[in-house]
Amino acid sequence: MSVREKVKEQVSSGGVIFREVDGRINVGLITRTARSGLTVYCLPKGWIEKDETPEEAAIREVREETGLTGRILNKIGEINYFFYSDKKEKIVKDVHFYLLEYISGITADHDEEVDDAGWFPFEEAIPLLSYKNEREILIKAGDMIRNIISK
Ligand code: ATP
Questions:
Q1: Over the chain, what is the mean pLDDT?
Q2: How many domains, in total, are found in the chain?
Q3: Which of 18, 26, 57, 143 is placed for a possible disulfide with 13 were both Cys, Cβ 3.0 to 4.6 Å?
């Protein structure tokens, strides 16, 4: 007898927002409290609304979760992972990540969905991120940023 698991697919969007301060690249990260009670460091990301493109959702999620507004320069890539919801459903999630150049805003204006938001120097931000797939996205973003700045 086989038991078929109920699987739900979700698509989200997120971003790496950056700026240069005194010749150093800084990126915007958020912290959340995981179900275990531990603090996790993440890239800002979230649900794509029905009337939104993935790009619009990335700009909105970055703005809501970090307080920072940016403009998209490029697509970085996608990650996928799964988890079990409170209703014990398996959720398979794809997240599109974009590179955003900082325009305006302050991290104190992050919303209540996150515990905190802040700017971190790029090199410090990589080991802080809790999920390997987001560390890989940030490393790829770093290569893109260096490429843009050297032009
Ligand atoms: P939303 O969909 O509104 O952004 P959410 O909390 O429902 O919010 P996630 O942030 O995807 O959705 O978190 C759901 C689960 O997936 C949590 O258990 C979280 O720890 C885990 N999770 C979050 N990001 C990742 C990731 N990059 N890689 C693996 N697991 C992750």
A1: 95
A2: 1
A3: 57
34 lines ligand 1 (CB under 6 A): yes
Distance 32 CA to ligand 1 centre (A): 10
Nearest CA to ligand 1 atom 19: 34
> Helices (DSSP H) in 9-151: which residue ranges?
54-66, 122-128, 132-149
Work out which ligand 1 atom sits closest to the CA atom of 133. Answer: 27
Q: Residue 102, exposed/middle/buried by CB under 10 A (0-12, 13-18, 19+)?
A: buried
pLDDT in tens, 78-136: 999 999 988 889 999 999 999 999 999 999 999 999 999 999 999 999 999 999 999 99
81 lies in which domain range? 7-149
Q: For residue 138, is pLDDT > 90?
A: yes
**DSSP secondary structure code for residue 107 in this structure:** G
Q: Is the CB of 130 under 6 A from ligand 1?
A: no
**DSSP character at residue 41:** E
Does 92 sit in the ligand 1 pocket, CB within 6 Å?
no
Residue 31 lies in a domain: yes
